[in-house]
Amino acid sequence: MTEPKLRFYGGKAVSALPLLFFIGWAIAICVAGAPDENGLILGAAIGLVAGMFFCRDRWWDYAEQVFAGMANRIATVAIVAWFWAGMFAQVLREGGLVDGLVWLGDASNASGGVFVGATFVLAATFASAVGTGYGTAVAFCTLMYPAGLIMGADPVWLLAAILSGAAFGDNLAPVSDTTVVSAATQETDIPGVVRSRFKYAITAAIPALILFSIFGGGGSAVDPAQAERIFAETASPDGLILLIPFALVIGLALRGYHILVTLTWGIIAAVVFGLAFNLIEPHQIILLDTDAKRVGGALVTGITGYLSMAILILMIVAGGHIMKIGGALDAIVNGLARFAGRSVARAEIAIWKIVFALNIFITINTAAEITAAPVVSQLGKKFKLHPYRRANMLDAVTSALGYIFPWGGGVLIGYQTIRNLEGTYDFVQAVSPTQVWPFVLHGWFLAAVMLIAAITGFGRRYEASDGSPSKTPPADV
Fold it and tell me: Among 328, 334, 320, which Cα is nearest to 374's?
């Protein structure tokens, strides 16, 4: 089936206008100190309308392609994962897991930077098991962010540690969308891909952990007297029983169950344990408020907190689709292919560049990965790079950058989650996306590791005649 095309006044580059306008708008309102998700939705909508005025084909065709872009399965998967993860995290919060984590942090002296470092490790572990970096951002911003502020963590470093852990797991999880897509598009197996990429992930993670632990303390969101009062009023080990549902989700994910299955059982287990141990009342889970004529509770909050974000992501994906069928993407790809020439190192640098560039424009990292996959496959096969190597170059950079840029889906979902907490905790104040992006250390380090690997050949493997990885390039390369 032939892919639809759109023509634009000014050439193919103009098809990038919807996303370019959105990025400029997002940066402007973030710098102005108003990174509101409704404002971002407006920017995305204006960008799509601007693109329509430059379309040479019928506006009907342009509008239909906007809808076609919104129908992208990747966006749907991300949105539904947020809803399920949001319900799970809200039930755990209502049941007192945050209070339990505060008590545990105090009992173990894991305050300040140590707490931030531990949060990075826990988030990385959770994301590696569950396979959703966005879901990890939702769960850990809900649970660990308020606990960390009480324990003296710096809010910017704490959010950066959560996003870094999400990036780590998104890259390494066998059930992650990015892992599955990278293996499938490069025509190889998932277990082998995961084993081959661990060296890159851990190389980036170790220095990130050290720096998080050193610089993550010194938070002043909660003054010592207020922290002592909050601790005395709320800290309790009772809520730690809800770590069992948390562990259940990890265990089911490691056994290969679907993300919705794992989170559904996690929600059920959290509700059962919460009720059985008198940690939560039924009305806290589902509230039928006949006076206000509404339905509330943790399950409702877990979903409604991300409705605006869901609308925004649909518009961003639509903008990426317009850029693709308008030819701007092909122009980028063709330019990088010419840059590669006959050098395998230059080919891998070109792969790194195209993945990096697409993650700037397409802020849902799996969608960016799918878009980049054909050129990665084409360039990689030209130089007989092993599918593991191609998949790793594709996935590591994608996973790293998906949680860095202020307009990126991972950063925005973390920001929105913290915004949702401002009405619950008087000491919680959302960190602006423009504040946190330089400190998402694992993301930056992982992207740098892959660039160095392309330049130096670290971890490079070629495809032998029997399909196995080989350090020696074939004679015709």
Answer: 334
Cα–Cα distance for residue pair 333/25, rounded to 1 Å: 26
Q: Long-range contacts made by residues 264-270, C-beta under 8 angstroms, separation at least 24? A: 264/84, 266/88, 267/84, 267/87, 267/88, 267/91, 267/299, 269/244, 269/245, 270/88, 270/91, 270/92, 270/95, 270/242, 270/245
Measured CA to CA, the distance from residue 376 to residue 355 in angstroms comes to 8
SS3 state of residue 463: strand
Tell which residue, 369, 198, 342, has the closest CA to residue 377.
369
Q: Do the beta carbons of residue 386 and residue 199 sit within 8 Å?
A: no
* pLDDT recorded at residue 208: 97
Buried b (16+ CB within 10 A) or exposed e, 18-35: bbbbbbebbbebbeeeeb
- Which string of b and e fits 319-350 if b means at least 16 CB within 10 Å? bbbbbbbbbbbeebbeebbeebeeebebbbbb
The residue type found at 313 is: I
Amino acid at 236: S
Q: What is the pLDDT of residue 396?
A: 93
Task: Kindly give the interhelix angle for 97-107 and 224-234, rounded to the nearest 10 degrees.
Answer: 120
Instruction: With H, G, I as helix, E, B as strand and everything else as coil, classify residue 288.
Output: strand
> Domain spans of the chain?
7-71+320-326, 73-305
Distance between start and end Cα atoms, the chain: 33
Residues of the chain scoring pLDDT < 50: none
> What is the Cβ-side half-sphere exposure of residue 189, based on CA atoms within 13 angstroms?
6
The DSSP bridge partners found for residue 295 are: 288
**pLDDT at 195 (0 to 100):** 86
Bridge partners of residue 287, in order along the sequence: 296
Q: For residues 249 and 169, what is the distance between their CA atoms, to the nearest angstrom?
A: 14
- pTM value is 0.73
HSE value, Cβ hemisphere, 13 Å, CA-based, for 79? 19
| C-alpha distance from residue 367 to each of 81, 179, 316, 422 (Å) | 15, 13, 10, 31
